[in-house]
């Protein structure tokens, strides 16, 4: 049946079983969506299991538990995430976007049609944010960029982008990949050793990378080096 081939496969994640069941009930009868009841469940495509295209996550707020689950989902391959949240603090907004969240819905506004629209937007790689969140995100971006400009003019170690890597971060990681240590990198790039360490620390903190090898692997996978 051609309709099945066009369905968006979805997994639903929530700590509250009743909330999870509610989202599943919204989606399971939609002809354009196929809900996988278990993350291990998959649909065969040309004889091979198909990864879920979209993960829908329900949280009250982005606390440590929700952040850990979000990282697990993203690292598991379900990179297009729809987040349904009861509240979202300003410091969490950029964090969830960096984790790979494509769409955000307020829990009290998550009607069946809005949820379906968000799922399809995420599956296409598009974004979907409530208007008030767009405004808050723009304010945060402006604030962060002003802070980065000030830091750069004051001789700070690196003005890093919101997402991805700054050119000097790529330069440092390329030399790490070649086997150079901190002192050799500082000599090669005419930076102080402290600056090299600060660049690596800021990069690994921002992108949730555990060590230099992990950072190099990330840069290789994303095509930076």
From TrEMBL:
Q: Which residues form the HTH luxR-type domain?
A: 158-223
Give the GO molecular function terms. Answer: DNA binding
Q: What is this protein called?
A: Transcriptional regulatory protein DegU
One GO biological process term is: regulation of DNA-templated transcription
Q: Which organism is it from?
A: Streptomyces hundungensis
Identify the SUPFAM superfamilies for this entry.
C-terminal effector domain of the bipartite response regulators
InterPro entries in the record: Sig_transdc_resp-reg_C-effctor, Tscrpt_reg_LuxR_C, WalR-like
Keyword list (alphabetical) reads: DNA-binding, Transcription, Transcription regulation
| PROSITE patterns referenced in this protein's UniProt entry, alphabetically | HTH_LUXR_1, HTH_LUXR_2
Could you confirm whether the keyword Cytoplasm appears in this record?
Answer: no
